[in-house]
Amino acid sequence: MPSLFIDAERLRDLNSGLGQVCLHLGHELVRQIPNSRDGEPWHLTFLVPKGQTGVFGNSVRYIDASWLQKIWTPGQYDVWHCLHQDSDYLPRSGQSKLILTIYDLNFLERADYSAAKKGRKLGRVQRKINRASLLTAGSAYTASIVKEHLHIPETLPLKVVYTGVAVDPKNTPADIDSDLVRSLTNSPYFLFVGVIHPKKNVHTLLPLLEAFPDYRLVLAGPDGHPYAQHIREQAQNLGVADRLIILGSVDEPTKLWLYDHCEAFLFPSLTEGFGLPVAEAMTFGKPVFISNLTSLPEVGGKEAYYFENFEPENMAKVLHDGLHDFGQNPLREERLRRRAAGFSWPSVAKEYWALYEEVYNGKY
Questions:
Q1: Residue 203 has what DSSP assignment?
Q2: DSSP state of 171
Q3: Under 8 Å between Cβ of 276 and 345
Q4: What is the spatial distance between Cα 152 and Cα 317, in angstroms, rounded to a whole number?
Q5: Which of 51, 61, 179, 328 has the largest count of CB atoms under 10 Å?
Q6: Which structural domains are found in the chain, ordered by start?
């Protein structure tokens, strides 16, 4: 019976993109468990944070993540999948064939990191690559950055496997138990979903409130970084603070409601490994206005509107012209939904099962 070990420890933070990857990919992998080439079903073991045993059902095994598992994990596994490049949990040398997924190397863009710190982080990723039988990247952009900054042996395959989208507009609640959120139906609003962090470039959206005086701007996501306070202060200085709404982290029903009711989705991020909120907004058929940087064009394709730069006048023109174009083209909404449907967890899990089989059978 072939065995597969999956590091899903990042379930500890379901508000993060990696937490969502662990949750949805794990469920879909279990749903699709195949028989191996020799006719035996695969045996799955998940590494999960304490308290998450059973999250993927009773047909698989679980190991609680702890400091001990960083140096010793019981059992022998044919294939070991690290779902992200920063994992602290690796198989012992010779214990398993390692698949390493790299979602981004965003730390290379951080101005607050010294060259030495970036070098140390690259070194940690390189050591994992040196042990891997197969690499996967969350986007073609990420794959190109990996090849540029790390040594990938010619014999080590690097595959692009995109992220899936789990939101379903049919699950949008009719109402929300929040007077603040419910009040958003009183006037149109633009939406941003994601952590409020400098890399998300959210401050560039504030001048749009001057150009669109009838709109509000809603920011939904973790707001514990000092950058969130900078956003509030800048809104005060611009005189638009009364139309800026920072909700902080929101639950899934509220997020769906916000997507469903927004006029447009704005995402001027500077660096992304994929850009899941963009694909989620597209699932609702909403016009998306995004930067043309890193992996985002792979998500938006021809259906998104792009900020070529972040000058206020240019961004306002892109938004004005895009809203007009969207309103004049009734096919736009369906095309957005169709493109978003291409990022599905069933297809992602199917790709990974094929890779697990190939690794197990010695192709890699």
A1: G
A2: G
A3: no
A4: 42
A5: 61
A6: 3-164+344-360 (3.40.50.2000), 169-341 (3.40.50.2000)
pLDDT value of residue 71: 56
**CA-CA distance, 12 to 89, in Å (whole number)?**
15
Radius of gyration of the chain (CA): 22
pLDDT in tens, 60-119: 999 998 866 665 666 689 999 999 999 988 888 778 999 999 999 989 988 889 999 999
Cβ pair 141, 298 in contact under 8 A: yes
CB 201 within 8 A of CB 268: yes
Separation CA 223–CA 231 (nearest Å): 10
Pair 158, 141: CB distance under 8 Å: no
The closest of 88, 48, 46, 49 to 70, measured between CA atoms, is 88
Copy the structure tokens of residue 275. Answer: 């850009």
Q: How far is CA 333 from CA 189, 301, 309, 327, 329, in A?
A: 18, 14, 25, 10, 8
**If we measure between CA atoms, which residue out of 56, 55, 86 comes closest to residue 70?**
86
Find the length of the chain.
364
| Rounded Cα distance, 60 and 3, in Å | 11
Residue among 24, 9, 92 nearest 56 (CA): 24
| Residue type at position 239 | G
Kindly tell me the number of DSSP H helices and DSSP E strands found in the chain: 12, 13
Handedness of CA 254, 258, 259, 261 (dihedral sign): positive
Residue that wins the pLDDT comparison between 320 and 91: 320
Task: Evaluate whether 216 touches 189 at the Cβ level (below 8 Å).
Answer: yes
pLDDT tens digits for 128-160?
999 999 999 999 999 999 999 999 999 999 999
Q: Please give the model's pTM, rounded to 2 decimal places.
A: 0.90
Helix, strand or coil, per DSSP, at residue 145: helix
Which residues, other chains included, contact 317 with Cβ-Cβ below 8 Å and sequence gap of 6+?
Answer: none
